User: Fold this.
Amino acid sequence: MKFFLDTADLTEIEEAAAWGVLAGVTTNPTLYARVGGKLTDFENHIKRICDVVGPECPVSAETVAMTRDQIVADGRRLAALAPNVVVKVPTMVEGLAATRTLADDGIRVNMTLCFTVPQAMLAARSGARYISPFIGRFDDISEDGIAQVAQIAEAVGNYDFTDSTVNGEQIEIIAASIRSANHVTQCALMGADVATVPFGVLKKMVKHPLTTAGIESFLNDWEKVK
Assistant:
């Protein structure tokens, strides 16, 4: 499983990149607004994220357009910012049509706000590079988000789906809207390709009380040796 950071916070991205575990970044309008982002600086902010993570790490930048022509225009503009930009497009009719055009242009697409197997299969057929089923938002309405991701991962995995770009890479499932380290555990067990996590969850993934206790014990014993 690869780990993406779900944030627009440059400080968080820089710290996670320093750990050597970061394989990509996903952003959305809410995350950008949360760091005090301004419309006039959005594209520069995406460029800065791309610079921090390097050209091998995909950075998802989301369009807010609602029609296929506008989504395509947004996608082309965003993809031109850096070679590792992935255009994030909502799972909807206009998004599917736009994804087909963008993929045919060689632009990678992350289809987001995916909640069902039929949505995921349509996204795969439209040429998406990544499909992002959401866990937490499903849980919020008393549905089983983990079960939905498991079904999507199994269904997409039944077929040899590749995206429609020039490189024709294997489609990957990004488990999104992750709220806990346990969500990550369950997604890893079911075979999700990527978990995109908030920085707070990434930090919790490192911790365990037995690890903390063991470190304290070793340090105390070393003090005795000294």
Q: What stands out?
A: The chain has a mean pLDDT of 96.
